[in-house]
Amino acid sequence: MSVSILIVSHGQLAEQLIQIATSTFGDAMPLQCRSLSVSQACDPDLIAMANADMISELDQGEGVLILTDAYGSTPSNIANRLAAIVTSKVIAGVNLPMLLRVFNYPEQSLEKLSTTAFDGGKDGIIICS
Q1: Closest to 67 in 3D by CA, of 8, 23, 4, 3
Q2: DSSP 8-state symbol, 30
Q3: What is the DSSP string of 58-111?
Q4: Could you give phi then psi for residue 90, rounded to 5 degrees?
Q5: What is the Cα–Cα distance from 66 to 46, expressed in whole angstroms?
Q6: Per-residue model confidence as pLDDT tens digits over 68-115
Q7: Contact, 70 vs 38, CB < 8 A?
Q8: Which positions ≥6 away from 120 have C-beta within 8 Å?
Q9: Which of 16, 22, 58, 100 is the most buried (most CB within 10 A)?
Q10: Neighbour-count burial for 4-39, b at 16+ CB within 10 Å, e otherwise
Q11: How confident is the model at residue 56 (pLDDT cuts 50, 70, 90)?
Q12: Rounded to the nearest 5 degrees, what angle is found at the Cα of 117, between the Cα atoms of 116 and 120?
C-alpha cells in the first residue's frame, strides 16, 4: 500500500499536471493519482458530496495527499471538505516541480510525503536572470 494523490484545481490544470507526470514516468506511475477539476461557480458542498466515494476509493490505507491550486479558492475549499472524509493532508499551490518530487518518493508516509511535496513546490520556484 502507498499514499494516493488527488489534485483539485480550476479548469484543466489537474489533468494537465497528471498528463505531464505520466509522460515523464511512463506507464510505471509510482503512485495512484486522480484529478478533480472544478469551476469557480460550482457549489463546493455539492462537489465534495459527489466525490466522496471517489476519495474513499482512492485511499488505499495509507491516506491521500490532496494538492490544490490556490489557497482559499473554490478548489481549495472542496479539497478541504474531501480531506475530512479520509486520512489526508492538503497542500495548496500545486505546481509541476511539487508533483514530480512527490512521484520520486512513493515509499514515504503521508506525513513525510506532504513535507516532500511542500519542499518540491517551494524549491521549484526560482528567479531566473
Answers
A1: 8
A2: S
A3: H--SS-EEEEESSTTSHHHHHHHHHHTTSSEEEEES--HHHHHHHHT-TTS-HH
A4: -115, 130
A5: 18
A6: 999 999 999 999 999 999 999 999 999 999 999 999 999 999 999 999
A7: no
A8: 97, 98, 99, 100, 101, 102
A9: 58
A10: bbbbbbbeebbeebbeebeeeeeeeeebbbbbbbbe
A11: very high
A12: 85
**Which residue type does 37 have?**
S
At position 53, the amino acid (one-letter code) is D
C-alpha cell at 128: 531566473
Annotated domain spans of the chain: 4-105
CATH code, residues 4-105: 3.40.50.510
pLDDT tens, 26-54? 878 899 999 999 988 899 999 999 999 99
